[in-house]
UniProtKB/TrEMBL annotation:
Keywords: Signal, Stress response. It comes from Leifsonia soli. Residues 40-108 form the DUF306 domain. Pfam families: META. Coiled coil: none annotated. This is Heat shock protein HslJ. It comes from the Bacteria. Residues 1-22 form the signal peptide.
Length: 121
C-alpha cells in the first residue's frame, strides 16, 4: 500500500470521526444561547453549556441550574423575585422542562403542559 493511499484513508477516517463527534455534541448545544426578546414585559432566557440559566419572565429576574439530557432541558431549582407587574403574564417562572425545534424553545410546566415559546435571538 502506498503512502498516498494510506494518507487518503486516514483523511477519510478523520473526517468521518469529526462528523460523528459533531453529531454527538450537538444535543446539548441546541439549548445553549439566548432565547426570547430583551424588552420590557417580554420573557427572555440564556442557557449555557453547563446548564446554568438566567433571564426574566418579563417582570422578575430568574437564575438557576438545569440539566440537558437528550432532547430535553430540565430546569432545576431557581431563584426569582415575585413582584407583580401590570400587563405581564409571568409564565417562565413556572418552567419545568423545555425542548428545541429549530429556532423555537418550547417551555413546559410539570405534567408536560406547554406554557410558552421563545425564539432564538
Amino acid at each position: 500500500m502506498s503512502t498516498r493511499f494510506a494518507r487518503a484513508g486516514f483523511s477519510i477516517a478523520a473526517v468521518a470521526t469529526m462528523i460523528v463527534l459533531a453529531g454527538c455534541s450537538s444535543s446539548g448545544s441546541s439549548f445553549t444561547g439566548d432565547w426570547g426578546q430583551v424588552a420590557p414585559g417580554k420573557p427572555s432566557l440564556t442557557i449555557t453549556s453547563d446548564g446554568s440559566f438566567s433571564g426574566t419572565d418579563g417582570c422578575n429576574p430568574l437564575k438557576g441550574q438545569g440539566s440537558i439530557s437528550g432532547d430535553t432541558f430540565t430546569f432545576g431549582p431557581f431563584a426569582s423575585t415575585l413582584k407583580a407587574c401590570e400587563g405581564v403574564t409571568p409564565w417562565l417562572n413556572l418552567a419545568a422542562t423545555a425542548k428545541v425545534d429549530g429556532n423555537t424553545l418550547t417551555v413546559y410546566r410539570s405534567g408536560d403542559t406547554k406554557i410558552g415559546t421563545l425564539q432564538r435571538r
